[in-house]
Amino acid sequence: MSLIFLVGFMGCGKTSWGRKLAAGLDFTFIDLDHKLEAQVGTTVAEYFATHGEEKFRLLESEILKTTDYPENTVVSTGGGLPCFFDNMDWMTSHGQTLYIQLSPKALAHRLENAKTPRPVLQGKKGDDLAEFIEHKLAEREGFYLKATHHVDGMSMSVDGLKEVVGAI
Ligand SMILES: Nc1ncnc2c1ncn2[C@@H]1O[C@H](COP(=O)(O)OP(=O)(O)O)[C@@H](O)[C@H]1O
Ligand SMILES: O=C(O)C1=C[C@@H](OP(=O)(O)O)[C@@H](O)[C@H](O)C1
Ligand SMILES: [Mg+2]
């Protein structure tokens, strides 16, 4: 049973790399935000707006822990998931965890241009966004660093990721 959880800040590439890595390994791909959206029938942003962050955190944790994962699966998590409850410990005890590390500057650049709205960012732009990311990443990175493997988000490739997974 190989279960690989991708963790990291919003915009580091968990969803896009997760899909590519799963295809490269011939694994199943699950994005927990997509799973939540399918379950509640709205987008993450709409769910936040209607029910608030606290309910979202409870639901994403429940989905993480109750999903019936197929044998070989790459799981992309939401950027906040490792930082709530015992979610990070749960992932490290149920599979391998891989932190996609990116600088606040690179994250700000991606999130400024991202199509999917991130409610946690509250529509921030420019310097406000950059400052917010720096603080939020500092707050969250201790959780991400608990991951068993760390990869540089700027110099990633599917083959490089496969090598890391092979080593696992
Ligand atoms: N390797 C990359 N280089 C540049 N931009 C990227 C790369 N991977 C993802 N992006 C962009 O960054 C944004 C966030 O990617 P996504 O996979 O949704 O990240 P996450 O799931 O970690 O929030 C998207 O707009 C995507 O197009
Ligand atoms: O960092 C966060 O708190 C969040 C990250 C999002 O996922 P991505 O990291 O895939 O953007 C999504 O779960 C939600 O908007 C909250
Ligand atoms: Mg994502």
UniProtKB/TrEMBL annotation:
Superkingdom in the source lineage: Bacteria
Cellular location(s): Cytoplasm
EC number: 2.7.1.71
Binding site for substrate: D33, R57, G79, R140
InterPro entries from the UniProt entry: P-loop_NTPase, Shikimate/glucono_kinase, Shikimate_kinase/TSH1
One biological process term in Gene Ontology: amino acid biosynthetic process
Entry's cofactor comment: Binds 1 Mg(2+) ion per subunit.
Residues annotated as binding ATP: G11, C12, G13, K14, T15, S16, R118
GO terms, molecular function: ATP binding; magnesium ion binding; shikimate kinase activity
Biochemical pathway: Metabolic intermediate biosynthesis; chorismate biosynthesis; chorismate from D-erythrose 4-phosphate and phosphoenolpyruvate: step 5/7
Region forming the signal peptide: none
Keyword list, A-Z: Amino-acid biosynthesis, Aromatic amino acid biosynthesis, ATP-binding, Cytoplasm, Kinase, Magnesium, Metal-binding, Nucleotide-binding, Transferase
Self-association and partners: Monomer.
Similarity remark: Belongs to the shikimate kinase family.
Protein name per Swiss-Prot or TrEMBL: Shikimate kinase
Organism: Mucilaginibacter glaciei
